[in-house]
Amino acid sequence: MKTKKMVPFLAAAMLFASLAFPLAGCGGSAKKEIRVGSKDFTEGLIVSEIYALALEDAGFKVDRKMNVAGSIVHTAITGDEFDLYPEYTGTALLSILQMEMDSDPDSVYQTVKEEYNKQFDLTWLDSTQVNDRNGIAIRTEIAEQYGIATMSDLQKNAKNIRLCSQGEFEQREDGLPGLAKVYGEFDFASINLYDSGLKYQILENGEADACPAYSTDAPLVDTKKFSYLEDDKKFWPPYYMAPVVRNDILEKYPEIADILNKVSAKLDTETMIALNAKVDIEKQEYEDVAKEFYDSIRKPSTP
Fold first, then answer.
1. What does residue 277 show for φ and ψ, rounded to 5 degrees?
2. Cα-Cα-Cα-Cα dihedral of 97, 100, 105, 106, to 10°?
3. How is residue 124 annotated by DSSP?
4. d(Cα 60, Cα 25) in Å, to the nearest integer?
5. pLDDT per residue over 107-138, tens digit each?
6. pTM value?
7. 3 state SS for 223-255
């Protein structure tokens, strides 16, 4: 009788324990949450997704806040809409802090790191070696014909070069006016305006010889077609990419720094060009490209 009466009691007790244990477990091991943002172009999306994957791998629950317009991304992070995103040192220096141009990479990084911490309560983690700077791309065939490898070479041979532009380059201080002060006047054979999205097509079709470009543009993966000129007099500021993180979230989860720094150490300009090309040229999804890259750098877990 005793045994028979205790069985329902024990069964009930065990049922309660089985229900209570998962609840206790969920409360005790609730995932750490973090919001990862990105700018609204291929490169920003890829790198943010790589950071998100690394954080998930480390046990974080990641809320993705992707595709934020560059004009409002700084306001978004300072307004607590997300916790981190990749930014560029040159953009921070000139557009956000509105400070004077500086061409020294270390100097720019230290300046933006100090000012962001002081003014915005944001921390710049370690920089990648992705330098997405302004510059000039030229058809490799033309570069070889005239011996053009640097901006100084371009200035000397400008009379033979047809420039494909988008209108602003001839007027901005970080465009032709500023270049002329450093390198001398660029007397191009012609300057014609085209849509920015068509510029490499225009070069490939032979309608122009050179165009304003960014150093991680996907078409630059094909060096037989296009060459990116060296800014030998260091006119343009560096645009190195690095994760920017809210100080409150970094204080809460200090391990974030080590997680993201390890990823950043694997990223450089050549790698970024190749990743961008997979999305922009091969038309792969940026999430797939990011996962493939992250899997390639991820340290295998010990069996």
1. -65, -35
2. -70
3. E
4. 16
5. 999 999 999 999 999 999 999 999 999 999 99
6. 0.84
7. CCCEEECECCCCCCCCCEEEEEEEHHHHHHCCH
